[in-house]
Every structure is written in C-alpha cells, then in structure tokens.
Design a protein that fits this description.
Layout: E1 4-15, E2 18-29, E3 32-38, H1 44-51, E4 59-64, E5 67-68, H2 74-79, E6 82-85, H3 97-104, H4 112-121, H5 123-127, H6 138-149, E7 156-160, H7 168-183, E8 187-191, H8 195-201, E9 204-209, E10 212-218, H9 219-223, H10 226-233
Parallel strand pairs: 3-8, 3-9, 6-7, 7-8
Antiparallel strand pairs: 1-2, 1-4, 4-5, 9-10
GO molecular function: ATP binding; ATP hydrolysis activity; branched-chain amino acid transmembrane transporter activity
Protein name: ABC transporter ATP-binding protein
Pfam families: ABC_tran
Length: about 240
C-alpha cells in the first residue's frame, strides 16, 4: 500500500441552500493516478473545489500529508503543493503561451530542464510559444492549463474533465501526456467522464453518487467487471471503445 497523501473524512459541503457533499470519505495514495467517476451532478467538481478551498467544507476533515487543510485559504493550499486545473481551464487568452507559463511560476523563472520536460509533454505549446493563447484549439488550451499547473513542482494535481469536448485524436494525446506525468511520479486526482480515458489511465478509482463515495478500489477490477460498471455508472467500457 502506498502512503496516503490526501484524506477526506466525513466531508460535507453546502453551496448556499444546497447540500452537495454528504459525508465524503476517501484516501488518495501518493504516486499514481486516482480517477473520480460518477454521473453528472454527483458532486465530483464540488469535491475538487472543496479540497482546494474554493468552497469551504461545512463539516468533516481534509488532511494533506497529515496537515489539516479543511479551513485553510486557497493560496495556502496551493503553497502546500496542490494545483488545480478547472474544467474552464482558466488560462489568459490575451497573453502568449510563454506569458501564461511565466505567470504560473510564482517563485521565479521556470527551470530550463523542467520547461523542456513540459514542452516534451505538450509539443503544440512550443509551436505556439509566442502567440496568444486564444489562438489555441480547445485541446491545446487544456494542455496549456495543465502545463501552467506543473510549471512549478507540485505534490498533487487536481484535474477536472481534461478530455471533455475533445476530438478522439486529442483525447489520445491527453492520455499519453498523463501517462508521462504518472511515469514522472506525479500524484493526480482526475475527474473524468470519458470511461475509455479513465480506464486507460487510472490506477485507483473512486465512484461518487449523490455526494458520497459509493465505490473505491483498483481501476483494473472495475474494468474487468461489466456488471459493476453498469451498476455504478450505468454504462460499460465496451460501449465507449
């Protein structure tokens, strides 16, 4: 068993009058990629935003490497080593690709070796290096958003639906990039609706339903069990290949 890097214990989150998370319990091991699956509205994005402090947990505890971050402000959580890539990507479209990367590296210029590694993950960014980020395709913007998140070393990446709306060729490129991130030892918590991409990448899987974790285990076990896929997700991997 890998050591637990992030742990949620009985986490509830309210947004205005709405009770979204109903006691989330889960553990994210250090190293590898954990996929958070679930139907629309299950609470997946709320879980990521609660971890990041963008929405405060109403109750429960969130521990990161043993440190209680349940009530910590978002900047402190980021400084602790957690990066968040929202579904909206949150890039600066009027700035160049280079400027987007420079702004993401808050502690100073990006190390040249790290920059070469990042551009190796996402070669398209090198081609558009000095052009406005608004010129990028949807998939390329998503790649830039991820590159911004890893411009400095991070201990945990939270990524929300990186393949949403992408053409199949871009989905395959994104899968290869995440495989390279895994090989580099990054710890990733990934929300993903594309079960094919999720099954290709996940070491561990959490399935959320109605604001709770309904299933936790090895991705390989879920991939091998069409009945479990149908019960938890209402789909099967065969239908998404």
């Amino acid at each position: 068993m890998s050591e637990v890097l992030l742990q949620l214990e009985g986490v509830h989150t309210h947004i205005g009058p709405y009770h979204i998370l109903h006691g989330v319990d889960c553990a994210i091991p250090a190293g590898g990629l954990t996929v958070l699956l679930g139907r629309n509205g299950a609470g997946k994005t709320t879980t990521l935003r609660t971890i990041m402090g963008l929405w405060q947990a109403s109750s429960g505890r969130i521990r990161f490497d043993g440190l209680d971050i349940s009530k910590a402000p978002t900047p402190d959580i980021a400084r602790a080593g957690i990066a968040y890539v929202p579904e909206s990507m949150a890039i600066f479209t009027d700035l160049t690709v280079r400027e987007n990367i420079v702004l993401a590296a808050r502690s100073g210029p990006v190390d040249s070796g790290r920059l070469d590694w990042m551009l190796g993950l996402f070669p398209a960014l090198k081609r558009f290096w000095n052009l406005p980020a608004g010129n990028l395709s949807g998939g390329q913007k998503q790649m830039l958003a991820i590159a911004r998140a890893i411009a400095e070393p991070r201990r945990l990446l939270l990524v929300d639906e990186p393949t949403k709306g992408l053409a199949p060729v871009m989905v395959r490129s994104m899968i290869e990039a995440f495989r390279a991130l895994k090989a580099a030892g990054e710890t990733i918590l990934l929300v993903e609706q594309n079960f094919y991409a999720a099954s290709a990448l996940g070491d561990h899987v959490l399935v959320m339903d109605d604001g709770r974790i309904a299933h936790s285990g090895a991705m390989s076990d879920l991939v091998a069990d069409p009945v479990l896929q149908q019960r938890l997700l209402g789909l099967s991997l065969d239908a998404h290949q």
